[in-house]
Amino acid sequence: MHDVYPLLKKTEFPDIFRGKLSTVQINLGYKCNQTCLHCHVNAGPKRKEMMTLETINQIIGFIKKFNIKIVDLTGGAPELNPHFDFLVKSVKKLNCHVIDRCNLTVLLEPGKSYLFSFFKKNNIEIIASLPCYQEKNVDAQRGNGVFKKSIKVLQKLNKIGYGLDKNLKLNLVYNPQGPTLPPNQKSLESSYKKYLFDNYGILFHSLFTITNMPIARFGSTLISKGSFNSYMELLKKSFSSEALKHVMCKSMISIDYLGYVYDCDFNQMLGINLSNSEKKHISIIDKLESKKRINIADHCYGCTAGAGSSCGGSLL
């Protein structure tokens, strides 16, 4: 895989400063039952990295100390971590809202069927990857048979109330097929809802459009195809100062599977430490200053291009 950071390090991106921390995003490990072309984590079935129970307990202590109210679980497939249930139950006791970034098909893996009732019991918000509503495009991006499995899981989630009950949030995620910006989120959501309901009877709450980041597997693919520079030019010329006001790194930190802290999930993948400091572990952080400068590089244009992009979709 190509190292993209040297191509991103020099940047003219505007300075960003941290605001009040509301969300902790936790990467529970890079192991995944899928290998997606757009994955910025380079996750897959052969990855071994997994967060330990010791690190999870240290993060729970941090969440309690700083009164964090939103816990965002990601991976890989976060559900493959053997301590996933323990972490969810622990932070729910602290009155946290839990988000699970689910690839859907992991719920069909051996021993994972209980997660349907576990999600409902713990009122977990599901943000589910479905990068297109058409079978051929999803399978091209995520692997043969993934679309049909995803539809099966969405139908099962609907059966237990997800996507129907306002308290059982089911949101879908769209990623472009290649080096282009996402279309308008609202209009694409309407297309998703009509197609999925008409053809499969599926309901969901919202669609989040997320720009592909020029890092890890996707960035390496761009380099291999000779389109890295043209994609970066697209991101830069599409820069939105309004989107910059709402970027997620202002209110969130990202924690890797070893417990080290970063300004965002993308910086984590590039090894860019928290706020221009030395590498810091969650167990030694005793304060998080607001107005602290966030580490930036050229990949930040991915969050501010067009309507903007975040873990919650469009920013505008």
Structure description:
Helix content is 33%, strand content 11%. It contains twelve helices and eight strands. The protein starts with a helix and ends in a 12-residue tail after the last helix. It is of the alpha/beta class and 316 residues long. 47% of the residues are buried. α4 (115-121) links the parallel β3 (97-102) and β4 (125-129). It has a single domain (5-304), classed as Aldolase class I (TIM Barrel). The protein has helices spanning 5-8, 53-65, 84-92, 115-121, 135-142, 146-159, 185-200, 216-224, 228-237, 241-244, 265-270, 301-304; strands at residues 23-27, 70-74, 97-102, 125-129, 170-174, 206-209, 252-255, 261-262. Strands 6-5-4-3-2-1-7-8 form an eight-stranded mixed sheet.
Total domain units: 1
Report strand %.
5-15%
Roughly what percent helix?
25-40%
With strands numbered from the N-terminus, the spatial order across the biggest sheet is 6-5-4-3-2-1-7-8
The poorly predicted ranges are: none
Provide the residue-averaged pLDDT: 92
How does the major sheet shape up? 8 strands, mixed
Q: In CATH, what is the homologous superfamily?
A: Aldolase class I
Instruction: Return Rg in Å.
Output: 19 Å
Task: Give the number of DSSP strands.
Answer: 8
Count of individual helical segments: 12
Distance, first to last CA: 34 Å
The CATH architecture term is Alpha-Beta Barrel
- Quickly give the structural class: alpha/beta
Give me the CATH fold name: TIM Barrel
